[in-house]
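Structure tokens please, single chain.
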Amino acid sequence: MTAAIPAIKLVLYGSHLWYHGCMSRLVNQTVQKIVDTVSQWDGVDTITLMEGEADIYNPYFFLSVDVYFRGLLPETETRRDLFSYGSVFESSAVNRKDRFLVGEFPVRIEYKDIDRLDAMIHGDLGVATNMADSGTYAFYRLQNCSVIASKSEWLTRVREEIQNLREDFWAVLRVSVQSRMEHFVSDLGAAVMQGDDLFFLVSAAGFARSLCSLLFAINHEFEPSARYLAEHTQKLPILPGTFRGWFESFLRRDSSIAREKKFEIAELLARSVIGL
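Here you go.
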């Protein structure tokens, strides 16, 4: 599992501060260590970094690395040893993620099977239905990541393909997400009637997320991570004229807006977005 990948092309900018001049030398060194480690594994094709989450001045800061591979990865304990320069190593077999610290920098590495991604992109429209739950964040990462090492032009090809998804993909996604949003509106009303505080909070979170997902589907754009969802949603080109005010009112955390009123706002938001 440690044989070097032939002809891997490193595209780091060497000793330069490549993240808009803002990343520190230590961050660059950390990224280089990860590339040096992972690029040696059999089957690894492309390594990317999400730039928006690598800004050391952002309170959400962590190094978010995606490793696109074919075949098998080194076992968890082997990876723990290979990342010996890190500490507090944690791994999730379910989501294929490793987390650890390199000095003061938190690192999150996600391992993504290329064959599975290709099947999603080239499969039938069932993938759009499934994305009603998970959202299109996987495609967002493919579209917006920075390539820091690559062996092939796989990612270039994939980016072209997801930029030209069929119109019926977006239509199926919209129907699926809209149904999910309407379900949460109904749950909000039930929670208000029952005076169930926890169910109201859970339903409110589900409604807000699915409402944003619906707007991204309508705009034919992929969703960012939940950390940036509110900001990016309000910048979408197609929005109801009253959206921003109602949405801000719905998200307010103080008790000045009764839950009955929030339910009414949710109904107004849902109707306005469905009408687009």
